[in-house]
Amino acid sequence: LKLSITVGFISLIFYPFPLCLQIIGSDGGFYCFNLIVSGERKSWEEALESCRQSHTSLTTLTSEAELLLAKTAIQQDHITDRLWIGLRFLGNRWMWMSREPLFYQAWPEASQDHQCPATGRCGALNKQGLWENWDCQDKLNFICS
Predict the structure, then answer these.
(1) Residue 90 CB-density burial (10 A; 0-12 exposed, 13-18 middle, 19+ buried)
(2) Is residue 61 part of a domain?
(3) How many CB atoms lie within 10 A of CB 24?
(4) Residue 84 belongs to what domain range?
(5) What b/e string do you get for 51-87 counting C-beta neighbours within 10 Å, with b at 16 or more?
(6) DSSP-assigned states of every residue in 66-93
(7) Distance CA 51, CA 65 (A)
(8) Considering the domain boundaries, does residue 4 fall inside one?
(9) I want to staple 47 with a disulfide (CB 3.0 to 4.6 A). Which of 43, 57, 84, 127 is the partner?
(10) What is the DSSP track for 37-73?
(11) DSSP conformational letter for 122
């Protein structure tokens, strides 16, 4: 069973759990992006530790294609409206815990809350596919990769 979507010149093929995104571009390249959506509710630090014990880390979303896969994966009734991702505000800037560069961003256009947050220094993905900054102690579901 698989779901195929074409976005521009890219074909996205979704396979069942663990979710795998196959991107077939003009160069015929293949890319697989695995996601594990946890049904547990944890603080950001607890979620990071849980992901590091069982998988790699909290997920890093570095492209629109990866964001689309994550957004698709979290559309379940038992999942919180937002989930922790591997995004953290440290040293006056947002950064991925994987150390990937933060080129692609998905903050809401009208919101400036993330620019210099006094609180809400941990990143979450909402079910609309946008990033939000939240208090790191909030208990949310989370996405590992």
Answers:
(1) exposed
(2) yes
(3) 16
(4) 35-144
(5) beeebebbbbbbbebbbbbbbbbbeeeebbebbbbbb
(6) HHHHHHHHT--TTS-SEEEEEEEEETTE
(7) 22
(8) no
(9) 84
(10) EEEEEE-HHHHHHHHHHHSSSB----SHHHHHHHHHH
(11) E
Classify residue 82: in a domain, yes or no. Answer: yes
Per-residue pLDDT of the chain (145 residues; tens, 9 = 90+): 444 544 444 444 444 444 455 555 555 555 566 788 999 999 999 999 999 998 789 999 998 888 988 898 899 899 999 999 999 999 889 999 999 989 999 998 876 666 666 678 999 999 999 999 999 999 999 999 8
Domain count, the chain: 1
Helix, strand or coil, per DSSP, at residue 141: strand
Q: Residue 48 and residue 96: Cα distance in Å, rounded? A: 12
Which two tokens mark 103?
């080129």
CATH number at residue 102: 3.10.100.10
